[in-house]
Design brief:
Elements (H helix, E strand, L loop, with lengths): L2 H23 L4 H4 L10 H25 L13 H10 L23 H19 L8 E5 L2 E7 H31 L1
Antiparallel strand pairs: 1-2
Organism: Pontibacter mangrovi
Pfam families: DinB_2 (PF12867)
Protein name: DinB family protein
Length: 187
């Protein structure tokens, strides 16, 4: 898998997610953004807050790993370890299997404001800068501790792929909540 193509694809997906979140959620009221189809499901803002919690950990961890592993003349390519492949496959939007999140990453019953969306978009801008910086990094260096088990490290490139796939998954989840809200309002 060519890294430049992959990094470019990850950047494009991230830009698309920013555009989607800005377009789809900015005109909604705070009441609508906090709408929950069921008490145990997440609202649109809770989906974004979940991603914010992950970004608060992974953005600094990735920035540090990228800065500490420069590569001037290496051929950038991303290869996936068993852990990286499993992690990315688990969070791909196409994988509709539900997974229980760790307690501190679960935003259920949070009281969220519009700042949640603004923070999400800010994290995406940071990620876009990291994806650009990653073009000059050793992408296959195991340098990013896994959030819930810091003794395990993932490779820089596979962590970037994990983060973007995870965000894509939960933005799509938020869009499904919006669709349910629209259907309920029309009924």
């Amino acid at each position: 898998m060519k890294a430049m193509t992959t990094l470019e694809q990850l950047s494009q997906t991230t830009r698309d997610l920013c555009k989607t979140v800005a377009q789809e959620f900015s005109s909604l009221s705070l009441v609508d953004l906090n709408y929950k189809p069921t008490p145990d499901s997440w609202s649109m803002l809770e989906c974004l807050e979940h991603l914010n919690r992950y970004s608060r950990y992974y953005n600094p961890a990735l920035a540090k790993a990228i800065a500490q592993n420069p590569c001037e003349n290496c051929v950038p390519s991303i290869t996936f370890s068993w852990l990286g492949k499993k992690s990315v496959d688990m969070v791909r939007p196409q994988n509709m299997k539900k997974h229980k999140t760790v307690k501190h990453m679960n935003p259920n019953d949070s009281h969220l404001k519009r700042a949640t969306t603004e923070e999400f978009l800010q994290h995406q801008q940071e990620l876009l800068h990291m994806l650009e910086d990653a073009k000059q990094a050793k992408l296959n260096k195991k340098a990013v501790p896994v959030e819930f088990f810091k003794l395990l490290n993932m490779r820089i490139g596979e962590t970037l792929a994990f983060v973007v796939a995870h965000q894509e998954r939960h933005v799509q989840q938020a869009l499904r909540v919006k669709q349910q809200l629209t259907q309920q309002a029309a009924a």
